[in-house]
Amino acid sequence: MTTTHRQNTLSDPQLAKSHVDFAVAIENGIVPLQVQEKSGQLEEIYIDMAWVIVRDLKANRDYCATSTGIPFAKSYLEKAKAKGLSRTTVADIMNKEDSSINKKDPHASMTGDLVPRAAMLDQALLTCLGQYKHDHP
């Protein structure tokens, strides 16, 4: 997951000239995580998640949170990389192998339609705003 795009978005000179109080940047990505199996060996799993940043433009202060992460099989990432991540997504590969996975919102599919991606992003955004509220009682 890269933070470059996120920082570029929040550093846009037009924002400083605008009449808005906040700017929001969301960067989705795949994060590797090592977990220990019962055998004691480490296994690498992959988590799809987003970084959400709300910038208070007046104070130039960032409030950050992550969305809920959804794990998925390493094989999906490997197949997407082989095709080229600029030409396909992991969700495309998942959908081709399992048509019940919604390629526009695999998060919903993978949580039994209980938690769509938008709800995960809403929660992260609310977490950022809660941090702001804490600083400005």
Please render the helix and strand layout as text:
Blueprint: H1 4-10, H2 13-17, E1 22-36, E2 42-56, E3 61-66, E4 70-72, H3 74-83, H4 90-97, H5 106-110, H6 117-135
Helix pairs in contact: 3-4
Describe this structure in words.
By secondary structure, this protein is α+β, with helices and mostly antiparallel strands. Helices cover 39% and strands 28% of the residues. The chain has six helices and four strands. Strands 1, 2, 3 and 4 form a four-stranded antiparallel sheet that branches. Strand 2 and strand 3 form a beta hairpin. The longest helix has 19 residues. It is elongated and about 50 Å long.
Number of strands: 4
Q: Please state the structural category.
A: alpha+beta
Percent of residues in helices comes to 25-40%
As an assembly, this protein is single chain
Largest sheet: 4 strands, antiparallel
Mean pLDDT rating: 89
How many angstroms does the end-to-end distance come to? 33 Å
